[in-house]
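Section 3.1: Structural characterization of target chains.
Under the original work plan, the team committed to producing a structural model for every single-chain target entering the pipeline before any wet-lab resources were allocated. The record below documents one such target. The sequence was received from the expression subgroup and is listed exactly as submitted; it comprises 731 residues.
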Amino acid sequence: MLATALLIGAPAAAAPPATRVVDATIDAGRARVADPYQWLEEAGTTEVITWVAAQNAEVRQFLGRYAATHSAVLSELEALFDSDSESAPQRYGSQYFLWKRRGLQDQPLYIRRAGGVMGEDRVVLDPNVLSRDGSVSIDWAFPTWDGATVAYGTSRRGDDASNVMIRDLTSGLDHASEVYLSRQVCNPYHTRIFENVTAGRPSTFYLAWDPDQRGYHYVRRGAPPRPGDAGDDLETTDLQLQHVVYHRSGGAAGRDRVVFTADDPRTSLEVSASADTLYTIVRASRDELSHDVFLRPCPSEQGFVPLVKGVDARFEVDVFEGRVFILTDDQAPRGRLLSTPATELDRARWNEVIPQRSGVLRSLLIANRKLVLHYTEDGYSKLHVYTLGGEFILEIPLPPGLVVTDLHGHWNDPDVYIACEAFDTPPANYRYNIRDRALERYWQREVKADTSLYADYEIEARADDGTVIPIRLVHRKDLQRDGNNPTLLRPYKEDPATDPPAFDASMIPWVQRGGVIAIARTRGDNTGDRDWRRAGLGAKVERSVSDFEAAARKLIEDKFTRPQRLAVGGTGVSSLPALALMTRRPELAAAAVFDGPVADLLRFDQVPAARRLHALLGDPSDPADASRLARLSPAHNVKDGREYPSALILTDQADDQIGTLHAWKLAARLQAVGKSTGATALCHTLIRSGLGASKPIRGILREDAMKWTFLMAELGMAAPDDAPAGGGSPD
């Protein structure tokens, strides 16, 4: 909207590529909604491929006009990330395994250290030798309990075509692949992985070793191939249901046994071993808010016994010394811990071990025969240690104001390993000895930035119904509240641990230039307790939209910024409040950046994996939900003749979790309207680059540089390369 008006001499933007319109409609309850760009859902056609290429060319042309800014920002990001990073270690036998990235290495290494966490690095898996362009990643790794063998899987450019490989760490050699997974491996309803340039490697694959380490359970879609098949019976297996499958080492893939099957295509499965390795645990998720849990001794031929089924609540479970420990928000919105004998699973026998506290209970770890509970309060972390019977022992004395992002320990080891950070504190790893009560910071990432120059704090907005909406702010300490500060307002991501108050070096080029980062906690996000989460989901999802609008008004009223200097943005399904503000209240913002957005609320479940979003948004096939979603769907509520913020929308060809249809259809509609209003709408599709954490780090940084360059250009922070000296400023 402002790219040509903000800076004297700025060249007019080229016309966006024309997009064909079709006569398609969607039945949305009692109304039919026009869907003129439905043909863009057919991603593999020649016409769509040509359209995407033209859109990407338009983005390159835009960046070419701001090449100096783009180059400077990219150089700064590369300098910020050109240092080693590593995850918190996990102990297997006498060895410690972790992910480590050395500087700007394309992909992180999986390494082990013998004898202690400060031991010499020994590379177990190095994906960087598997391709010249860094496109092959190692997505998951599961060592055996003695640390002698590791199961792992690789993918190329973010696809999910992977097999289970077994590496003998004594010889360094791989066994022949015994389990063929192909596109059936991954959990299709797992939360989308977003850019994460730390060493940690999130896993979307589940594997649990037997105590004797000669067999394992794993999760796959579709049934295992039949004996004699080549290993990938993709065309003839049922891809809708997930299965837990058991494999015994040395056996053929076709002889694996299905031991548990989901009862609904929308149900995703996770399998894990208990802390003492004596039980196999299956968690079945209808959505991210409710879980069923099943157990069986390991190894065992008996079926899985339900611990909890059909209860609308979160359940996470571990088993140790004959007792089942149950973390749940059932009848406790902030979470509590229950327990029952492993031989008495009936709910009538459950006992409350640790009641609900003031903080939100996030996770449970069993270490040194103790319970270590992770709580968050006001965004920050606390770690409490209890006896197995629930008696409080101590709080681990972490420095105040930190966010715990990783936590590991072993049931028979007094050492707990903690990864934590804050926006003014780069990621650090700590070791806490429960027995000696000694805390040691043994590693911290080096970052070439003086974070003491930046302020990080919260202010409060008020929603229309009076609810307090916290807004996390990050900016230079010398900020002047004169209404002239370029500001990016966005909701928290789906994983709030990746947002401030956690550390995020990718923000520094923006903040250093005087930009403000504002992150709004809206009802429905994952930053609060169960009640906060459910207050903005499903039929109540418009509350999150109105909360976000309240945050925008607060920033303007308090003179942090003004509409001509305000941008909004978001990622994945969490981008909906910002998308809705752009289409419902476009006068409040001047620019927008979205990464993998969910913008088409009427056809999002055309992507099978996205059906998990029914619990969050509603079901478009239900007439009542469809009527509500039609009023909110950003892709269907861009009106002719109305001026919208300039927009940069990114998507990824490899995204099979949400899909490309949202970005493409929204961009096409904004471009059509922008022809008469002059608004800029750009759409960039990553082609064969890798999805989420599988991307080479330089690819991730190029995307970040693209986003910041766009916002700097649209909010008057950067002049085109050919603009005369002494350019103007925003209206």
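The two ends are 12 Å apart (CA to CA).
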